[in-house]
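QA checklist item 7 of 12: single-chain prediction sanity check.
[x] sequence parsed
[x] length recorded as 427
[x] structure emitted
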Amino acid sequence: MHRKVALVGLGYVGLPVAVAFGRRQPIVGFDINPTRVAELRAGHDRTGEVEPAALAEAQIHYTDAIADQRQADFFIVAVPTPVDRANKPDLSPLIAASRSVAQALKVGDIVVFESTVYPGATEEDCVPVLEQVSGLKHGVDFFCGYSPERINPGDREHRFETIRKVVSGCDAATLEVVAEVYASVVTAGVHRAPSIKVAEAAKVIENTQRDLNIALMNELSVLFARMGIDTAEVLAAAGSKWNFLPFRPGLVGGHCIGVDPYYLTYKAEQHGYIPQVILAGRRINDNMGRYVARNTVKLMLQNGLDVPRCRIGVLGLTFKENCPDIRNSKVIDLVRELRDHGTTVVVADPWADAAEVQHECGISLADLAAEAPFDALVVAVAHREYRALGAAELRALLRGDKPVLADVKALYPRDELAAAGVTVFRL
């Protein structure tokens, strides 16, 4: 059966999905942000996930008008699911999207949610909104499914079409339709989950598993630092064993790994269970930005630097390398901690949007070379521009006899920096 698709939410997740479907058939692309809609109509994707040529060949009717969604009978909802300041799930974008879809819902339509949620959210939180606003009955008049997103921002190898897609439906017939629709564009194939809750749970533990593995590496980094052992050298040695998992310490931010575990723990607590391991991992990872800042300051003090009168350059603000996404970036915690010590902090990032950074974080991006020299540098994000820097180039940005460099991702040879007179801290 041919289905007319509407994509609700055209961000990092939704746009690549929309383009994949739009290559095959005309679809509706809906977003509540008129500026985003206008940019996409003009052929520009500010997230950098979709190239202009790919946008141009996709048959997408970009709109911020709810009425335009009525052309569709298969809705895919891909809106953010963040946490609030207390790390509790914030479903307001998802509920708002459900209300929007419900105003366009007709008998026989299918709504599939891709947003990361806790098990039960689709049927317990979204379906009642769809029913209330539309006046239709779920399972009789319209049907729901869940297919967790697996988009990896900045990844040119693992794309929407090449990642196996988990699909689910409220009943067997819906599951088959959902599977058929996604299989038409996902070349890697689909995995049919037996229920919506299983699909929701699968998504949330994918990132929880990764979060915990990185938390272990971060805790080992803290421990080895106290022992005077270089963590990167330890991991290189351990990695010579065939089944040692290649995780590295680092700052865990973004829209998934740093957020999704809180959705699972929230639901667990509703069921009377207080997770131990998951929350321990979250505590470790949430503190790493401040940990890096404090160790940088500690080395500066040990080198005799008057910290409140020092200038520190921070290279990179996005949550991951070669990507403009600043959501939940832990580099922001690092910058705030450094400023709390009275230092002047100058932040640069060739990938981030300066206006967005100023609006969301209150941080002005600068040209590091123009602002040099500095008493310390923190290379926080492994952008390709920073990976290419050599010891001499880094030293040229620094002043004094005993400058400090915090190499968060262990990008540079320690011996070369030491030979240049730079004291190095790295995770």
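[x] summary fact logged: The first helix runs from residue 14 to 22.
[ ] second reviewer sign-off
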